[in-house]
Design brief:
Blueprint (H helix, E strand, L loop, with lengths): L11 H14 L1 H25 L14 H51 L4 H10 L1 H20 L3 H9 L3 H7 L4 H11 L4 H25 L3 H4 L3 H10 L3 H19 L7
Helix pairs in contact: 1-12, 2-3, 2-11, 3-4, 3-5, 3-7, 3-12, 5-6, 5-8, 6-9, 7-8, 9-11, 9-12
């Protein structure tokens, strides 16, 4: 079934098997976009943190006076908060733009491999760029709704993430608009909430656990040069990140096949 468009709903095991099969067979086509985006993200991360250094913590006396609190501690606190807001905002914008772009490229590339048996990375890039406004708007809406949902006792955020997990494939494959893709994704995962959640959880574990280990191992690199830690982490993550995108596009085709089951033989 490798390289073929699924004609029926696939199990999670089949999706994972096809995901790894396609990834290993076309490794460079999926690895290179994430490698380039990882390098770009690492460089910009270093630039952002260098531009907004954390303020030095004031030396707190044994018995802080009111003057110390108002003249030193409070200004330091507000400077810290403003610096953190600036860093988080810029990092969020960077992740939103670069992450959405590379996901669109990889999903388009995987879609061509599944439907046609061949793909062109340059063509995937051009197509993703043509859909970038829709991808960015849809991803922004999903991110905002997910964050709001997570703040409301976590569970609503998980539901939103499941509901809109197929937004990018619907924009890339079906060429839906940014808002139209939200409803289409919801329809595709209807009555498969548990399966969608479990698949996303498995993919996140496969990608996430090694990345936690990488982050811990690369912390000492900051002592050599601050840019080495984010750069090394992002480059190594390029090996794992394609697994999530390929798994999602296979799940998309499995849900489409569920909508249109093949006719039964009399």
């Amino acid at each position: 079934m490798n390289g073929e468009k699924p004609s029926r709903e696939l199990s999670i095991g089949e999706i994972l098997s096809l995901t790894f099969n396609l990834y290993f067979n076309k490794f460079l086509q999926f690895f290179m976009p994430f490698l380039i985006s990882g390098i770009i993200t690492g460089i910009f991360t270093y630039a952002i943190t260098s531009t907004f250094p954390m303020p030095e913590t004031p030396v707190i006396p044994e018995t802080p006076s009111t003057t110390f609190v108002y003249e030193e501690l409070m200004p330091w606190f507000f400077a810290l908060m403003s610096t953190m807001v600036a860093i988080v905002s810029l990092m969020g914008l960077l992740s939103w733009f670069v992450g959405t772009t590379v996901s669109g490229i990889v999903i388009k590339n995987a879609s061509d491999q599944i439907e046609k048996g061949t793909s062109n990375l340059g063509g995937s890039f051009s197509f993703a760029m043509s859909k970038l406004p829709s991808l960015l708007i849809a991803q922004f809406v999903v991110s905002i709704l997910t964050v709001i949902g997570l703040l409301l006792l976590i569970v609503p955020g998980i539901i939103v993430a499941i509901m809109f997990s197929l937004v990018i494939p619907t924009i890339i494959v079906e060429q839906k608009g940014s808002l139209e893709s939200l409803g289409r994704s919801k329809d595709l995962v209807h009555n498969r909430w548990g399966k969608t959640f479990f698949l996303i959880l498995v993919l996140m574990i496969i990608v996430g656990i090694p990345m936690v280990a990488v982050n811990l191992l690369t912390v000492p690199l900051s002592d050599i040069h601050p840019i080495l830690n984010p750069l090394t982490t992002n480059v190594i993550s390029a090996f794992l990140s394609p697994i999530f995108s390929i798994g999602i596009i296979y799940f998309y085709y499995a849900m489409v096949a569920r909508e249109n089951p093949p006719p039964t033989t009399p």
